[in-house]
């Protein structure tokens, strides 16, 4: 067997870049892939200032074409989501173990900031159930007495550092970091949080006074059963269950008829009004029905001086803020992307991080706790026909009027109804159909989803989040360290070579083994890839000899999916070449990309293998080899 193969077509090597050019290109691809500075080129100083202002405050860009017709849509949407958010805000504040007014404060300030800085037209901002309970649970672990002033200060501190975390990710353009947690793991975490929140609401729904401070399912159910039956209040149960059924019916009506979405949107406010009036005229609070009692009247007081910038709670505030801030950011960006895809416009993830970070920093100084995009409110906002973020401003103004004028009217609102509102909202976060789809599509995603889910309901939010992160990283590591390879065959009637497992009719070429590597080749997988290729070669050789086919003389490695290679990968190819030499098998490469080819040439691997054994395609390689007398 001769060593030389007749030359067919040379694989080109891209022009060599300097170290600075390569570094600049990589930085641009990682941090500035959207090329945000391109619109500033060849502009006057005043125009650059305007463009910079619009980049930070998108409202100055889309606001130029704003008109009365658009405002009419936003006004109706704003009123609709306000009717939903006011009872939700009061209820969610209870999840955080804060007084009800803090939920309303949050829905007054943060939507205003987001309306000026956010890039989504549809997100409705405010407190959300998952983040509220996560924040409340983590705060309670540090300060068990949630009536103490330190507890409130720690909540503001956590909100401040949540905003700092979110803003830092936006400014440094590190938004890609949140993509490291898989969608399946996030779904499991959110579903687990929804179940945990629902179980926590049994305290208010059943009228139980002595209830566990833990969030896991075992502790909660133990508290529920130990209080039965004397610890349950039947008047509370009747009120809670009656309005729970009412809310579920309205939700069912809205789901069946999209035009009646407003029925479900106004149902929480109707429930609050009716239940408050009922308790007031019957004085059910005298019979053990727990009520809201007092909501502070007036505009948000300043809380800038309340934030811990030193002392023993500073570390806890940073830790809680980072965790809760990341969860809030992930949820908010995911919601924004969902509605942006529906309406076919682009959402700038880095702008969203900057907007959410700014609104939480300002919120922490104005008596607010962590806010983000709410799926239930955003869905109602979308269905109500919102056109821009002005709907958030309208909602904010309505909440402000509520704080100034009517908060005393919520005094007799039963907590059981607030629990019912929360239960109906969070149960919508559990999607069994999607979980079943995960099982059908990707078992690893299913495991990630279930791991995060059970971590939350059986242990804690932090453990569930940790499980989600660990499993997500494990999947990435597994895909990087154990990449797929495939044996290719020729599809009959074509010059195309495909995976023989996917295309059983594809035929292998006598005397040749064609293997495709489906990954970049790095230190973490180079040795595995080399050993897998050699093992596949040995197995194929044995099988072909048993079937009385010619032994393998050429190994063609199809490298189209190999987008990069490092020094360990180069070394692995050198070892592969030497191993094949001992077996009297020639190594042939097909379609290495520009980066790979550049590194092959720099390392002299092209000289070792031979430039005449590197081809633009598998078909070229096979055709060239066959000119030496091999049969197709």
From TrEMBL:
Molecular functions (GO terms): secondary active sulfate transmembrane transporter activity
Pfam families in alphabetical order: STAS, Sulfate_transp
Keyword terms: Membrane, Transmembrane, Transmembrane helix, Transport
Entry membrane topology: Multi-pass membrane protein
Compartments reported by the entry: Membrane
Major site of localization recorded for this protein: membrane
Top-level taxon of the source organism: Eukaryota
InterPro entries from the UniProt entry: S04_transporter_CS (IPR018045), SLC26A/SulP_dom (IPR011547), SLC26A/SulP_fam (IPR001902), STAS_dom (IPR002645), STAS_dom_sf (IPR036513)
Record's GO cellular component terms: membrane
Residue ranges of the TM segments: 151-174, 180-199, 232-254, 260-281, 354-376, 388-410, 416-439, 446-474
CDD domains: STAS_SulP_like_sulfate_transporter
UniProt domain STAS: residue ranges: 502-625
UniProt record similarity statement: Belongs to the SLC26A/SulP transporter (TC 2.A.53) family.
Record protein name field: STAS domain-containing protein
Organism: Crotalaria pallida
């Amino acid at each position: 067997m001769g060593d030389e193969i007749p030359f067919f077509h040379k694989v080109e090597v891209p022009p060599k870049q300097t170290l600075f050019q390569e570094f600049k290109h990589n930085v641009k691809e990682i941090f500035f892939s959207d090329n945000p500075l391109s619109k500033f080129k060849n502009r006057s100083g005043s125009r650059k200032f305007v463009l910079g202002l619009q980049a930070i405050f998108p409202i100055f860009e889309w606001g130029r074409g704003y008109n009365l017709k658009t405002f009419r849509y936003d006004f109706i949407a704003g009123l609709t989501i306000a009717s939903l958010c006011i009872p939700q805000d009061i209820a969610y504040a209870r999840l955080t173990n804060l007084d009800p007014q803090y939920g309303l404060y949050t829905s007054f300030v943060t939507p205003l900031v987001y309306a000026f800085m956010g890039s989504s037209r549809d997100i409705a901002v405010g407190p959300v159930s998952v983040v509220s309970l996560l924040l409340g649970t983590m705060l309670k672990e540090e300060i068990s007495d949630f009536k103490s002033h330190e507890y409130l200060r720690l909540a503001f501190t956590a909100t401040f550092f949540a905003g700092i975390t979110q803003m830092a990710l936006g400014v440094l353009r590190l938004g890609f970091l949140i993509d490291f947690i898989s969608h399946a793991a996030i779904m499991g975490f959110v579903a687990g949080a929804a179940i945990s929140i629902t179980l926590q609401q049994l305290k208010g729904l059943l009228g139980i006074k002595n209830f566990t401070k833990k969030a896991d399912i075992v502790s909660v159910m133990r508290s529920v059963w130990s209080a039965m039956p004397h610890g349950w209040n039947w008047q509370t149960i009747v009120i809670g269950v009656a309005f729970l059924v009412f809310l579920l019916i309205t939700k069912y009506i809205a789901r069946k008829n999209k035009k009646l979405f407003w029925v479900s949107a106004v149902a929480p406010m109707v429930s609050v009004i009716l239940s408050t009036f009922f308790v007031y005229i019957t004085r059910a609070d005298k019979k053990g029905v727990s009520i809201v009692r007092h909501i502070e009247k007036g505009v948000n007081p300043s809380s800038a001086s309340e934030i811990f910038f030193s002392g023993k709670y500073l570390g806890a505030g940073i830790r809680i803020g980072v965790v809760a801030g990341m969860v809030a950011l992930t949820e908010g960006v995911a919601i924004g992307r969902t509605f942006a895809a529906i309406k076919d416009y682009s959402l700038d993830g880095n702008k969203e991080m900057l907007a959410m970070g700014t609104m939480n920093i300002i919120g922490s100084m104005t008596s607010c706790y962590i806010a983000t995009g709410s799926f239930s409110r955003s869905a109602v906002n979308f269905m109500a026909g919102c056109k821009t973020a002005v709907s958030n401003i309208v909602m904010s103004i309505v909440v402000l009027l509520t704080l100034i004028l009517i908060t005393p009217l919520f005094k007799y609102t039963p907590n059981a109804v607030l629990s019912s509102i929360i239960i109906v909202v969070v149960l919508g976060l559990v999607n069994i159909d999607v979980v079943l789809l995960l099982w059908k599509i990707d078992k690893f995603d299913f495991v990630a989803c279930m791991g995060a889910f059970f971590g939350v309901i059986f242990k804690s939010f932090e453990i569930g989040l940790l499980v989600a992160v660990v499993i997500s990283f494990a999947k990435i590591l597994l895909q990087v360290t154990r990449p797929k390879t495939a044996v290719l065959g020729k599809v009959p009637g074509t010059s195309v070579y495909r995976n023989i497992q996917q295309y059983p009719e594809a035929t292998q070429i006598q005397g040749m083994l064609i293997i495709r590597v489906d990954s970049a080749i790095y230190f973490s997988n180079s040795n595995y890839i080399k050993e897998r290729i050699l093992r596949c070669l040995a197995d194929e050789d044995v099988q072909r000899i048993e079937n009385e086919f010619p032994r393998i003389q050429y190994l063609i490695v199809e490298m189209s999916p190999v987008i990069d290679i490092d020094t360990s990968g180069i070394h692995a190819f050198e070892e592969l070449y030497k191993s094949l030499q001992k077996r009297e098998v020639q190594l042939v490469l097909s379609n290495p990309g520009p980066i790979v080819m550049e590194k092959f040439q720099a390392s002299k691997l092209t000289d070792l293998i031979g430039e005449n054994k590197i081809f633009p395609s598998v078909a070229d390689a096979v055709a060239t080899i066959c000119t030496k007398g091999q049969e197709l």
